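Sequence, please.
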């Protein structure tokens, strides 16, 4: 199939969608709840560890929302080195590059939800030149740039500009959008090094050196970049026809250099292996097979359409087959129409990061593969495959086929734009996971006159208390304790709430104070209980009389 340069209409469409995508990445940055995991980003920026926080505020004393600010922003007591140390101690599975950048960013521009999220939004803009470079390098292996690479690159930019899954992480104070950028750069650098492998001397060293540097950046962004290295290794060895060629040797040396540069953090992970296992224990939760498969299909939908709906909504059953067929046909098409150097790269990019998560969930149970952030690189491969399919079929010689694929392209664009519109007005989203209900909980508590919120540091409560501190009014008081300590509840509060207590702890409080409790909010993640407190009623009755 011979393709011409992308026509003016396609280029105009790409520019418009790019502008729309950029606008929505910065629109209403602070509207959605600053959730559990994001508060840990701010904790890392502050330089404090979780144990230090527990000692200072989880001690049973009454505090207000201002007491949390010290642990959510840079301060004079802690420096950049403390940010790295807090990661080593609490979250070794999170490499330090993003958190160092976030600390510097907040130090320059100030501390607010908008500012910290704007770092991810700005980083997300690097996706567009990165995917353009990757498409040029990838499709040079089968045809000239003017015939294939530029139309595919244009469509890829358009799809990623309006991809709901990209918007989610472009507006979140976590490292995952930076991970996408580093993987794109690393992949493009690899393809460039392979394409220019025939060069000798300094240029060849520089090309492989560029790959090593981008690999180090990717590894220091997120540990799962190791899966990308495996995918690249399979690709290089397979394209060398499983022979130990000069190219394979150069790849191995560059990868070895990258891992040697990453060795200090590997040592951190090994030393703190028990903490890593504790931090990732949530992935072991069992899910029925049918729910697991439904969740995978839902994740596929969210690449192109995301209305914060689950399979309980009938619309999901209507739209899922469309995207499943589109994905399946794009894989079939690219394997049939391109040489192995193109389709093998895309297939390995999809399969290698996904299989180590999906297979254990299928065989042994768990929900590793349900964390969309872990599969973002596989989503990139899917988007590349569909971009190639759409770009080539939009130039099909058959008028009927060309019109059909124009309609399909239009539907994909509409899905993305509608998703952006809905998401931009929402206070919470599926990506907030265990903090999804926090805006509703905050409304319930804020409606009362003089409330007290009691919680402990068990499970998700620690991070959710910090998340709620961004939403609750100054009149709300907090009483936080360690483990299942019985709090010394003072008189004088009109309403007393218990945030996600265990049944044992709640019943101990009921017995100790002769209280009764009832649920005022509940979802699949946690419950908010309210205490029937006769002493507060008597206290305020005395005030009124």
């Amino acid at each position: 199939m011979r393709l011409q340069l992308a026509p003016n209409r396609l280029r105009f469409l790409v520019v418009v969608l790019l502008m729309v995508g950029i606008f929505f990445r910065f629109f209403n940055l602070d509207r959605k709840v600053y959730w559990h995991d994001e508060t840990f980003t701010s904790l890392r920026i502050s330089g404090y560890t979780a144990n230090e926080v527990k000692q200072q505020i989880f001690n049973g004393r009454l505090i207000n929302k201002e007491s949390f600010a010290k642990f959510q922003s840079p301060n004079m007591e802690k420096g950049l080195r403390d940010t790295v140390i807090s990661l080593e101690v609490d979250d070794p599975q999170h490499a330090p590059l993003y958190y160092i950048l976030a600390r510097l960013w907040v130090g320059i521009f100030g501390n607010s939800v908008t500012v910290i999220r704007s770092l991810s939004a700005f980083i997300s803009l690097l996706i567009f030149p990165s995917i353009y470079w990757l498409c040029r390098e990838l499709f040079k292996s089968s045809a000239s740039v003017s015939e294939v690479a530029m139309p595919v690159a244009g469509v890829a930019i358009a799809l990623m500009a309006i991809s709901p899954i990209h918007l989610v992480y472009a507006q979140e104070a976590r490292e995952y959008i930076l991970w996408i950028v580093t993987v794109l750069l690393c992949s493009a650098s690899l393809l460039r090094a392979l394409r220019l492998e025939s060069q000798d001397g300094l240029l060849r060293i520089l090309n492989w050196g560029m790959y090593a540097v981008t690999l180090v950046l990717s590894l220091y962004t997120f540990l799962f970049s190791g899966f990308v290295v495996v995918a690249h290794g399979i690709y290089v060895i397979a394209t060398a026809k499983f022979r130990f060629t000069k190219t394979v040797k150069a790849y191995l040396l560059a990868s070895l250099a990258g891992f040697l540069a990453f060795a200090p953090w590997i040592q951190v992970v090994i030393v703190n292996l028990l903490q890593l296992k504790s931090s990732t224990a949530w992935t072991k939760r069992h899910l029925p097979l049918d729910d697991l498969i439904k969740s995978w299909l839902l994740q596929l939908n969210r690449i192109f359409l995301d209305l914060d709906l689950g399979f309980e909504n009938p619309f999901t059953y209507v739209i899922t087959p469309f995207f499943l067929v589109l994905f399946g046909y794009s894989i079939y098409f690219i394997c049939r129409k391109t040489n192995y150097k193109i389709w093998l790269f895309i297939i390995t990019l999809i399969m290698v990061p996904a299989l180590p998560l999906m297979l254990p969930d299928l065989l042994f149970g768990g929900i590793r593969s349900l964390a969309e952030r872990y599969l973002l690189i596989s989503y990139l491969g899917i988007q590349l495959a569909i971009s190639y399919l759409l770009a080539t079929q939009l130039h099909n010689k058959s008028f009927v086929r060309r019109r059909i694929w124009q309609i399909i392209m239009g539907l994909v664009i509409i899905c993305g734009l509608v998703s952006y519109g809905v998401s931009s007005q929402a206070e919470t989203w599926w990506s907030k996971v265990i903090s999804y209900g926090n805006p509703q909980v905050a409304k319930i508590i804020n409606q009362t006159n003089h409330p007290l919120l009691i919680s402990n540091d068990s499970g998700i409560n620690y991070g959710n208390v910090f998340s709620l501190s961004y939403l609750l009014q100054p009149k709300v008081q907090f009483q936080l304790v360690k483990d299942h300590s019985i709090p010394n509840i003072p008189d004088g509060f009109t309403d007393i709430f218990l945030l996600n207590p265990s049944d044992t702890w709640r019943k101990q409080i009921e017995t100790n104070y002769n209280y009764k409790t009832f649920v005022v909010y509940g979802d699949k993640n946690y419950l908010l209980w309210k205490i029937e407190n006769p002493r507060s009623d008597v206290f305020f009755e005395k005030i009124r009389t």
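Residues 1-6, 537-545 have pLDDT under 50 and may be disordered.
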